[in-house]
Structure formats: C-alpha cells, structure tokens
C-alpha cells in the first residue's frame, strides 16, 4: 500500500480508469492522493466514454454540470429519453454498464390497437409519455426487443416487465416468461422453455429472500413505485462475432388459460445489467 501511495497522480488516474465506479468510490478512502484521483474528470470521463457517450452527447452534455462524476451519477439516479420518448437510458451505479427500458408504445402487445382490449393514457409517475392499460382480454402476449450492440459487452443482463396493477385487477396471477436471441431460436422453441412468473395482488409482495426460495419468479416493488418481474437472463458477448448484430427479445404471455384479464398497466420492459 505504501508503494501505491508513492505513485505519481497520472499513474493513479490510469489505474482507476481501468476499474469500476464502485472500485473508484472505495479507493477514495485509501489516501488523499487516491481521493483526489477519484474525483478527477479523467477517470469519470473514461466511464462515460465506455458506457454511453453516444447517448449522452445529444442530451446531457448540453446540461451544465460541475464535474464528469456528477454527470455520471446523474445518469445512475435518473434517466434520459431517446428515440422520441420511446426508450430510456441510464447507467448502473456499481458497474457503469448501460440500462435501457423499452416503452410500452414500442412493445409488441397483442390487440393493443383494439380499444375494446387496451387503452393508452398518460401518467405522471411514468417516465414515458404514455402507458398501456389492459381493459379486458383473454389472451395476453407482451414482447420487447433491443439490439445487442446497444448493450454493454461481456455483461450479464436480465429483462424485466415493469408495470402496475389497478385496484380492480383480475385474472392475472401468473404469466409465462422467456428471453431469446432472435437470430438463434424461434419463438415456438423459446415458448417451450418459458417459466412461470408470479403476479401478486395489489397488496401482497414477497420479500426478496422469499422470492429466491420459490420455484416461480415473483414480482417486486421498485424504488420508483412501479412493480417489476424478471422475465429471464442472458449474457451479451459483444464484439465476439455475429451475435453482436442480433436482437434479444423478452416475452411475457398468458395464452393457455383463456379467462378474462384486466387491470394491468404496462410502462415497459427493462434490460438491466446484473
């Protein structure tokens, strides 16, 4: 440790820029030299360049901020809207890897254009201009996809359905969920390995330790007040061949038990690093 403290600041900056945001935060407790380096724009600019510079250029760089660290942290605690409000982008605070949520307006939702079954409405608690509300349907099929090249390479991801439930929700207790690489597996093949996810009533949520002990994946309350349920996991190789040009699709469905369903409010599907 004494040898590290004797390193010139340039070396410390180079070392920290090759680590993760979490490592940089921890290093600030080592010494005054490390604390100074941990606040440097050089280090945090590297994280921004590695994990989302192409998205930040057109939006956040127009906002006056004191430091690159503040810009990075703002993207960890909030989000920016892309593609005309159809996609949101943020960063994972621990790794700096990219997070995206695909808006309901961009999802493929069965019968969403039929006003008998679905309606579009604005909600002040949604990050997107509109959300989709299930009025009445017997068949539920929701899909969202994203290009792998948009995600952080060599990273484990999970896909989540982000939703709320109306007070008069009924008919939605479980869904089948699956994630597939679209250029490697057909939707019929993927559907055969779909697993059940549990959608609790509006007043009941399992704690995370209880969720891990159940065979079914269970919905959890998010810090933003919405609910999420994991649809599946995948590894994004990134730059390792043809997979880099493919798309990943996350799907939630109930197409077997054809009873009436109502009250689901869909904000989007989020692709988030693990």
Automatic annotation (TrEMBL):
Residues 1-47 form the F-box domain. Transmembrane segments: none annotated. InterPro entries: F-box-like_dom_sf, F-box_dom, PP2-like. PROSITE patterns: FBOX. Pfam families: F-box (PF00646), PP2 (PF14299). This is F-box domain-containing protein. It comes from Anisodus acutangulus. The lineage of its organism: Eukaryota, Viridiplantae, Streptophyta, Embryophyta, Tracheophyta. It comes from the Eukaryota.
């Amino acid at each position: 440790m004494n040898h590290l403290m004797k390193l010139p600041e340039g070396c410390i900056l180079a070392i920290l820029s090759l680590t993760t945001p979490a490592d940089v935060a921890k290093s600030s407790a080592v010494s005054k030299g490390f604390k100074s380096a941990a606040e440097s724009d050089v280090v945090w600019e590297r994280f921004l360049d590695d994990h989302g510079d192409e998205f930040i250029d057109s939006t956040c760089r127009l906002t006056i901020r004191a430091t690159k660290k503040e810009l990075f942290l703002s993207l960890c605690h909030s989000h920016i809207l892309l593609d005309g409000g159809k996609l949101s982008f943020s960063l994972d605070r621990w790794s700096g890897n990219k997070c995206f949520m695909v808006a309901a307006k961009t999802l493929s939702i069965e019968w969403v254009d039929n006003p008998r079954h679905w309606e579009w409405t604005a909600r002040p608690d949604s990050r997107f201009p509109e959300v989709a509300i299930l009025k009445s349907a017997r068949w539920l099929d929701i899909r969202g996809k994203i290009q792998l090249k948009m995600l952080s390479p060599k990273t484990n991801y999970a896909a989540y359905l982000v939703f709320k439930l109306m007070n008069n929700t009924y008919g939605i207790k479980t869904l089948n969920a699956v994630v597939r690489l679209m250029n490697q597996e057909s939707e019929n093949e993927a559907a055969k390995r779909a697993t059940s996810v549990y959608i609790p009533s509006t007043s009941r949520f399992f704690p995370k330790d209880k969720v891990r002990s159940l065979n079914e994946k269970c919905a959890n309350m998010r810090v933003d007040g919405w609910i999420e349920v994991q649809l599946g996991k995948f590894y994004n190789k990134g730059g390792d061949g043809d997979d880099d040009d493919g798309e990943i699709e996350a799907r939630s469905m109930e197409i077997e038990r054809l009873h009436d369903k109502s009250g689901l409010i869909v904000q989007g599907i989020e692709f988030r690093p693990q």
